[in-house]
Amino acid sequence: MDIINLEVSTTGERLDRYLSQELTDLSRSRIQQLIEQSKVQLNGKICTLKKANVRNGDRIILEIPPPSAMELRAQDIPLDILYEDDQLIIINKPAGLVVHPAPGHPDGTLVNALLAHCPHLPGIGGVQRPGIVHRLDKDTTGAIAIAKTELAHQHLQAQLKSKTARREYLGVVYGAPKTERGTIDLPIARHPVDRKKMAIVPVEKGGRIAVTHWQVKERLGNYTLMHFQLETGRTHQIRVHSTHIGHPIVGDPIYGSGRSVGVNLCGQALHAWKLKLKHPLSGEWIEAIAPLPKEFTKLLEVLQKRN
Fold first, then answer.
1. How would you classify residue 284: left for phi > 0, otherwise alpha for psi between -120 and 50, otherwise beta?
2. Does an H or E element contain 238, and which?
3. Looking at the annotation, which residues are catalytic?
4. What sections of 7-126 are H helices per DSSP?
5. What are phi and psi of 157, to 5 degrees?
6. How far is Cα 219 from Cα 203, in angstroms, rounded to an integer?
7. Do 209 and 232 contact (CB within 8 A), yes or no?
8. Of 24, 86, 93, 101, which has the most beta carbons under 10 Å away?
9. In 3-state terms, what secondary structure has residue 117?
């Protein structure tokens, strides 16, 4: 169980709203649930009133119980394997496949497929996310690495943290950037109002450093094929950064413009094209390139004919 201690630095804010602003990893509905479950103390007394006003200097203690265990089961879901040995496996993830079980997606995920393919995966790096080193959004396609041993899990995570591993993406955006390349260095956190979204949030208000390098690969009239390289791996990072500079990813249901492009996309036109990392044992470089999905290729063909 996690215990969080806070000293209020504002006055006149509702308890649930204040906590949701301070604890960006928790949704407001989750915070309200914890308040109702008597998991919140205000100035030493349990408070079950979400509308209670907090004042400057108030002390809040929040108990976050451990997540209830979800039963993971192996499922025979086809995998497009780009690389595999006894230490790791790199998959070309299709659109629509959630990486790991979560509320609303108890099964049918990449983890369920991996459990059928790799029987010894459970317990590596955590019970609910066995082997998972990094994630891709549900409708983002492309290369994702999964550790098959605890050693590989630790080694791959260290590479991501130290920025040794290279993650390169291709995406089609609306509009035509004025320059050929650039870097977006803006912190990201949960949106303060819409908890389903991420947003640019100052570090002093809970934002986490996020850096995305971009380069124009092909100009397609009022659309552009972009190459992205990540230094950090925040949730929805490329999608949020692209939207912030005025060039949202085509087909993005959360951050996009909603304009039709004449191609029926499952989601955003964003593809994890290349993953380069060092092997956990040999130290040799592994480079996995994920072929573009048919939808992405069709989109490019349509835009090229229009141009």
1. beta
2. helix 237-244
3. 137
4. 15-22, 28-36, 110-117
5. -65, -40
6. 34
7. yes
8. 93
9. helix
